[in-house]
Amino acid sequence: MSIKRRNFLLLIAGSAGALSLNTLGGCSGKIINQSKVSSSKLSFGFQPIKGAIPLETTALSAEEQIKQYSEYEIIDDLVLPEGYKYQVIAAWGDSVGSERFGYNNDYLAFIPTGENKGYLSINFEYISAIPWMQTYERVIGRALPFNDVKTALKGKR
Fold first, then answer.
1. What percent of the chain has pLDDT over 90?
2. Dmax over Cα atoms in the chain, in whole Å?
3. Which domain holds residue 12?
4. Is residue 77 in a domain?
5. Alpha-carbon span 13 to 29, nearest angstrom
6. Exposed site from 29, 30, 100, 149, fewest CB < 10 Å?
7. Is the CB of residue 51 less than 8 Å from the CB of residue 65?
8. Average of per-residue pLDDT values in the chain
9. Residue 41: which pLDDT band, with cuts at 50, 70 and 90?
10. 91 located within any domain
């Protein structure tokens, strides 16, 4: 039997994800027992954000869970606990040397090399074609070169 690298990585990632999700109490559809988690809320150095499902760290009673999680507002932003902040280092289309920062990255890692120093490793693999094509000109400042590509391909035949 032959297995492609991508399929193998998907299998490993899916298995790890399933094991991780299995440990999240709120994912089972059951209401979490507050007495089980009364001290877990205190173990964090911050107040966790309210996600779309209650986790054991919320330490809410069944009634409070129903009340607080009957509706959930989706915020189109990176939501962090109070006291934390973020900075955008680069956005799609930003100049990076003679190139542009990519679209739809699927991997990000910081590799420390010393105190307050390191490398940021970013991988861009696939794009979501429709939104990429719809927003390319606005972000990059010029139209996609479809006609140039068609002309070049005709010359290769």
1. 9
2. 72
3. 1-72
4. no
5. 23
6. 29
7. no
8. 78
9. very low
10. no
Residue 34 to residue 151: CA distance in whole angstroms: 66
- Domain tally, the chain: 1
CA atoms within 13 A on the CB side of 112: 3
Token pair for 35: 């007495």
Query: pLDDT-derived band of residue 12, with 50, 70 and 90 as boundaries?
Result: confident
Tokens 């900075």, residue? Answer: 87
Question: What is the 3 state secondary structure string of the chain?
Answer: CCCCHHHHHHHHHHHHHHHHHHCCHHHHCCCCCHHHCCCHHHHCCCCCCCCCCCCHHHCCCHHHHHHHHCCCCCCCCCCCCCCCCCCCCCCCCCEECCEECCCCEEEEEEEEEECCEEEEEEEECCCCHHHHHHHHHHHHCCCCCHHHHHHHHHHHC
**Quick one: pLDDT at residue 133?**
87
